[in-house]
Amino acid sequence: MAELSDRAYRVVVQDGVRDLDALAEALGRDRDSAREVVDMLARVGLMLVNGEAFEPRPPRMPLQALADQYVRAAAAAREASEVLAEVWSRQMSTSDFLEVVTTTAQAMEVMARLHAEADNDVRALSIGPRGESPPQPSPQPGSHEAMRRGVSYRVVYGAQILHQRNVMAMIQDAVSLGQSARVFPDVPCNLHIADGKRAVLVAPMPGPERVHAAVFFEGGFLDSLIGVFETYWTLGVPITADPRDQGPSDDIRRLLSLLGAGLTDASIARELGVSERTVNRRIMALQDTLAARSRFQLGVQAARRGWL
After folding, report:
1. Which of 46, 101, 110, 228 is deepest in the core (most CB within 10 A)?
2. Pick from 237, 236, 149, 157: which is nearest to 192 by CA?
3. What span, in angstroms and rounded, lies between the C-alpha atoms of 304 and 308?
4. CATH fourth-level superfamily of 98-239
5. Distance from C-alpha of 200 to C-alpha of 116, rounded to nearest angstrom
6. Where does 3-57 sit in CATH, by number?
7. pTM
8. What contacts 24+ positions apart, CB below 8 Å, involve 264-267?
9. Angle 3-15/31-43 helices, nearest 10 degrees?
10. Could you tell me the pLDDT band of residue 50, with boundaries at 50, 70 and 90?
11. Domain 250-304 falls in which CATH fold?
12. Domain HTH luxR-type spans what residues (predicted)?
């Protein structure tokens, strides 16, 4: 039901409202709007109307019938999409496993629909907005709602986004909602895959239509894109919502800064006044502490914690 209809039903049931004027006041609408809401509730079986008077009806059976109706409509739409896709593929030169959208608005709509319709899982590569005059990074529309309804998310972010404070906070918010997030230095594109059945690949374009999108359906290309994601996922460094650390010592901070400056182990050893073996041992200990499999990953994890 629409939000206004839901509110109206609750007011009638919980507050005992039985006339249009009182209902209109409770909803903050005019009398005609209240009448329209009551009539709509009556059409779906949630209200019994007799002239100006109305009474609420038990909701379970009417809403179950309405839900069944939507399920049948969705099944019919899916069946129609398959039939029409077959017609399209017979008559057109393009393939039925690929659709291309060539406006920014269409690309954003396709992305939002992917998240809204995901049932089980979403896998994504993310490098943030691209194209001419891109907007500020923000959560994908529908993604937080999908996580709240139980859809699992695994996302690999390009390392460059860690340089933007607002993006890091945004990622950690998503992780707190249940997203599993990793970071890798050379993520090439924005790619979203829903339920292993559909993928949207977004690419920057010159001109006012700053992005186009390719939508892949089940088939060999989609399988390849899933394989690409899984490769980056394996290589990525985990991001957590709460690092839960007390920060490094001054010696560790200096070691990290020298590493970040690109010095060799021998040069770092001279700067710290220790042996090269000691430098190597300290770096390996830091990698174990921060669950980093490489020095690059060590730098990412240290930067994420604010150690650099």
Report:
1. 46
2. 157
3. 9
4. Endonuclease Chain A (3.30.870.10)
5. 13
6. 1.10.10.10
7. 0.53
8. none
9. 90
10. confident
11. Arc Repressor Mutant, subunit A (1.10.10)
12. 245-302
Dist CA 97 CA 224 (whole Å) = 13
Look at residue 73 and tell me whether its pLDDT is greater than 80. no
Quote the CA–CA distance of 133 and 80 in Å, as a whole number.
39
250-260 and 265-272 helices, crossing angle to 10°? 140
Q: How far apart are CA 102 and CA 210, in angstroms?
A: 9
Per residue in 207-261, pLDDT (tens digit) is 777 778 889 988 888 898 999 999 888 888 777 655 444 567 778 888 888 887 7
Both tokens of residue 231? 């490769």
Gap between the Cα atoms of 308 and 300, Å rounded:
10
Q: Which residue has the higher pLDDT, 155 or 243?
A: 155
Phi-psi region of 306 (alpha: psi -120 to 50; beta: other; left: phi over 0): left
| Tens-place pLDDT, residues 75-107 | 777 777 776 666 656 655 555 678 888 888 888
Cross-strand partners of 190:
202
Q: Fold identical between 3-57 and 250-304?
A: yes
User: Which residues have CB under 8 Å from 72's CB, separation 6+?
Assistant: none
